[in-house]
Amino acid sequence: MIVDIHEQKDDTTLSCSIDGLNSRAEFDRVFDVSIALEGAETVADILMLIQAHEDLPALGDSHPNNIWATVDNITVRNTNGNSYRVVVHYMDIGNPAMRVVDASYGSNITTESIDKDINNNPLENSSGEQFTVDEDFHDATYSASGYSLSWSASNAASYRNTTNNATWFSNPIGTCRVVKYDAEPVYISGSKYWKWYLEIHFRTDGWDRRILDQGTMTKDATTGLITIKDADGNPVTSPVKLNGSGGVLADGSAAVYRTFQTKSKTNFALLPLTLQDVT
Question: Considering the entire predicted model, what is its pTM?
């Protein structure tokens, strides 16, 4: 069906651009194709047969002179009668393993409602009253993406919603949290790579919640919870500071706080990032 394929050597355009901290190049190869119809082929049949011809580059193929330049788009159009033009587009991002991690920085405001600790136990004051804490947080954010030859979904899942178990690039323990860690397979130069995406939030006081010990009831070893009364003998209508043991805090005493761990901790040193990537 295809009679002749001729590459237009002079009809080539090269475009180079900055891609974050990296660079990339794009260019086309142009082929003129002549065909001889054999029957009642539809236009779609003709276009597909030309695009899939073994003498033309296919999607994912490397350029003959540059293994990192791969075909990412092919267009076929009729130019005149039985003549067609094939434009093969190449994208060259270089060796994925040598690319600098693409990164961006920002901020995020979230409202979190916390009623359980890391072990799924309800938050309680020292007298045993359960409560929920609603807080607004302003977190710094860091997003990054890069390439790797391997990827473990279970390993990524073990990081999500965890905080750093040691100082990480000068950030104290428990102040960095993995919000997103995903990946998708890509093919470059005939090899399979994983393009991963990572998002980390930073909170200066960490994700452990330090909450004032207060409530409307005290704890008695014999009778259990006892409602706190005001000076007139009526139940209090707002929380009263407690002493950390379930009793009312004595006047003039320092406030007592209870700390709750809400996120598990993992080793961030194993994430695919270096100091250069993060700072």
Answer: 0.74
